[in-house]
From TrEMBL:
Pfam annotation, one family: Acetyltransf_1
Official protein name in the record: GNAT family N-acetyltransferase
Domain N-acetyltransferase: 2-166
Domain of life (superkingdom): Bacteria
Lineage, opening ranks: Bacteria, Bacillati, Bacillota, Erysipelotrichia, Erysipelotrichales
Species the sequence originates in: Holdemania massiliensis
Keyword tags: Transferase
Alphabetical list of Gene3D superfamilies matching this protein: 3.40.630.30
PROSITE patterns: GNAT
GO molecular function, one term: acyltransferase activity, transferring groups other than amino-acyl groups
């Protein structure tokens, strides 16, 4: 059974461990190797702390049978997307929990929260080299609305999506 728990400062260690793991699983060959090898736990904990304190953000742990499976952050776009007041600023499931239909359940929860907040559209930015995530967002009806490609640093290549909230 999947559940969603609002993250608090008490969850910082869990969130940082999840982020470190999903970055290693997702971004090898995309992000600079030093980012993965020398993961700045304190820096990422501070970012999570700010997101948790931000009244416009929802930081949620994704739990499956009580185990930490991932997290998402929904809120004001970190990078402006024209006409979008709410964005999926992070969405990760560890590899152990992928390809089981959980992503669809998470996406349904994200859309439910967006609708409850009065949103008719939400945005999302995704690394252009994260092909599994791109396919996930396209299967959910994501409309590509902006491309930022061709950077020497592949971590900067991004695709922005727009989703209708029904």
């Amino acid at each position: 059974m999947i559940t969603f728990a609002a993250a608090s400062k008490d969850c910082l260690g869990r969130l940082v461990r999840l982020k470190h793991r999903v970055w290693q699983e997702t971004y090898a060959g995309i992000y600079p190797e030093s980012w993965l090898r020398e993961f700045d736990e304190a820096g990422h904990a501070e970012k999570f702390c700010k997101a948790i304190a931000d009244r416009e953000s929802q930081v949620c742990l994704i739990l499956v049978e009580g185990q930490d499976a991932g997290y998402f952050i929904l809120g004001k776009p970190k990078h402006p997307i024209i006409g979008v007041a709410m964005s999926v600023n992070a969405l990760y499931l560890t590899s152990d929990f992928q390809h089981q239909g959980l992503g669809s359940q998470v996406w349904t929860e994200i859309l439910r929260r967006a609708k409850a907040a009065g949103q008719t559209v939400i945005g999302c930015r995704c690394n252009a080299h994260n092909h599994r995530a791109l396919a996930f967002y396209k299967r959910r009806g994501g409309e590509e609305i902006a491309l930022d490609l061709g950077h020497a640093d592949r971590s900067l290549d991004q695709i922005a999506f727009l989703f209708r909230v029904q």
